[in-house]
Amino acid sequence: MRETRDDDDDGRDRHPRDRGARCCIQYFIPYCFFRNDDLNRARPPRSKISIIFLLAVLSAAVISISWAIQRLNAPYLCIKDGITLHCPHVKEPPSLWENPFSATTSWKACAERQEGIQSDVPDEDNTNGYIFIHAEGGLNQQRIAICNAVAVAKIMNATLILPVLKQDQIWKDQTKFEDIFDVDHFIEYLKNDVRIVRDIPPWFRDKTELFTSIKRTVKNIPKYAPAQFYVDNVLPRIKEKRVMSLKPFVDRLGYDNVPQEINRLRCRVNYHALKFLPHIEKMADTLVSRMRHKNGSSNHFMALHLRFEKGMVGLSFCDFVGTRAEKALMALYRLKEWPRRFKDGSHLWALALQKRKEGRCPLEPGEVAVMLRAMGYPKDTQIYVASGQVYGGQNRMGPLRSMFPNLVTKEDLAPKPELDEFRKHVTSLAALDFLVCLKSDVFVMTHGGNFAKLIIGFRRYMGHRLKSIKPDKGLMSKSLGDPYMGWATFKEDVIVTHQTRTGLPEETFPNYDIWENPLTPCMCRT
After folding, report:
1. Which of 30, 70, 84, 99 has a CB 3.0–4.6 Å from the CB of 467, allowing a cystine?
2. What pTM value is reported for the model?
3. Which pLDDT does position 14 carry in this prediction?
4. Sign of the C-alpha dihedral, residues 198, 201, 205, 211?
5. In degrees rounded to 5, what are phi and psi of residue 170?
């Protein structure tokens, strides 16, 4: 965002509507001043005062009109007053709360289990062995790891021991699988695909060995390994040892190098087998209901996944608006957390410019506000914010809140006693955000990550009727950096570009992430 510009743009208008008003001024002024020849004739002294007064009024009018035209041609016409941001009113389009092209697609979900099919899953006596994994990271990375674990077990015809959710090093969260997911449903739904057991077999007495012994761990699995790698390299060790741990297991199974039925199984786990516990689902439904009836009557609401936490800002190595003191503190933070990438810092400015140009930087709250206003969302839009602590606090959130004051979080919607039960496990709080975003009328992501791509993929899979906006950050960077672009041009560019970024199914190509776009393996034509 830029401060209001009072200087002319040297005629470099980017849109016909931006030029029109200026052309009117050029023709209007001579027409008003020189239309009547009487103005050039001699006047009595008393008339001179009237003429001077008239000229002064006309000059003031011309200056006012010229100032207004310049304002109309200022970038976005967004005036920044401290932390408050003001942008023009935009007429609300009819497709604001729906996916306008969803009716033109002919895809449906088809990864659910098939009833009446005889299972070929081996029993306890005929299994090739047992595999065990730690699901690392946050809730959504853990979710992906669980899906991959089921797929790997299927590839090797092995039995899967219920995955352990590894303790998060930041939140010190010790959530167990059964604290967040419905274990009975998980095992029952997948019984015709993979045999899953709740615990390590009782005949395997030294359970600590599975967690600590290198002899019980397969550690040489490459990232995005093909299915054949597991058959050739992992399966023989499992048959020999009977129980093996796979570690690390983050992104250890590919996409285009595994059979389609394996990718379909991953979707079956993600969209059908992994269900949150009933009390989590119930609380999420309560939050959604409160969002839909905030005005006393039924209303639409948007869910905004705002990725602008300190860690995300630091890891991005992008440059953001801020004081010299803020930038110095961020540089020290990056040096401490990522010393190898930081080095001496001399290359970071060029890197930051390149990443912003390529659209690889998180959108700031103020940039999100301008984009949403250009799309036509009015000031009274109800917005549920799913995010961690925003870097910069209220000062950074000020521009977004001033344009969209109806910003709420789960803490605003639910009194403290209602959420106390969920605070025992941080993962449960993340699950509430996940479900509210999933059920919102419009979902808006601002940066990548497992949370956003899982939400968009889920909404695609379950019908793609609800709009899921994935901003074109390259366009935003280019537009925000252009001092000669008028609001009309910017608004049109944003609307046209994002007509095809609303969460419709897309043709999948090799190495595409099925979590965001489950079309080819998991959806069928109607």
Report:
1. 99
2. 0.81
3. 44
4. negative
5. -85, -55
